[in-house]
């Protein structure tokens, strides 16, 4: 009877979408958007709930009929194969990863395991499934291009990753394209600029600066180089993923870029003024310069005409996005947001 009921429940949905890493920062925004905007789709989130997640990120959807959470490791072939055999997975968004660049210098093997081996396990399960997904979207990063002083990267630019995190993301990309070429798996790869917004774990630069300032500590800026990043608001990143699911061409790679490039020092100054409301003459009192990690890339400018031709443009301006990233009070209003997570790992510098 239970099997019959389950079958009937599944039949109500026109599509099943598997999101890995759906409890993380971008993943939780993507899952909420999918669950809300597609009540006729079933959304399965496979996530191991690492230190960077809060169960509260998904509380808005956890009781929805079209949402299912599976706690587990993407590197576990038995579990992942089971999901592909017991469900008719129509589309995959693969976001599960180790994402903290600074930690990747300290423990590259866990990045290798999750980012490369986890991707291989998922690809192999998708390839072997009786019902093959119609799309397999691998969410990669602009960091695979390596740093640039003045070159603007497009999707055909060579990959020159320069840290263990980006090296594992690039390695996973090559696995993805090998499954495209060898098995005609309909993959799409996205390479996105830095994404920011509410609920991002405090190891990343914007929430890190915000939470330091909101607890009356100085923003710690790494090194003296004129480092800058392009920042994309999380809603725009999610819209790009949703559009690519519908309109992206199988086998293609798409840059997802932000127009807004912000030098890290200016970012810190802006956030000091927003949070501390001090006059310009006092801003530097809230900045502290610390030593570099082994290597920090200068900048990653990318072109994203290919995605724009499908109808995507970033909608949220920097001013609006940074305001909504906590009004800037989100981190202040949610001081215990991460309290339920396991291990807490705090970096020393500004994590990009
Ligand atoms: N945040 C950015 O600026 C950015 C930019 C470009 C690309 N990306 C990519 O987007 C994806 C999501 O990034 P994010 O910022 O949301 O990261 P995040 O660190 O917030 O989330 C990662 C998620 O993966 C899960 N996870 C980790 N290991 C797992 C495993 N073995 N099995 C199952 N789940 C596991 C974590 O629990 C977490 O929910 C990543 O693949 C990242 O490389 C992020």
TrEMBL record:
InterPro entries listed in its UniProt record: dTDP_Gluc_deHydtase, NAD(P)-bd_dom, NAD(P)-bd_dom_sf
Documented EC number(s): 4.2.1.46
Keyword Coiled coil: no
Top-rank lineage group of the source organism: Eukaryota
Catalytic activities: dTDP-alpha-D-glucose = dTDP-4-dehydro-6-deoxy-alpha-D-glucose + H2O
Pfam families: GDP_Man_Dehyd
Root EC class: lyase
GO BP: nucleotide-sugar metabolic process
UniProt cofactor(s): NAD(+)
Family according to the record: Belongs to the NAD(P)-dependent epimerase/dehydratase family. dTDP-glucose dehydratase subfamily.
Entry protein name: dTDP-D-glucose 4,6-dehydratase
Organism, scientific name: Tetraodon nigroviridis
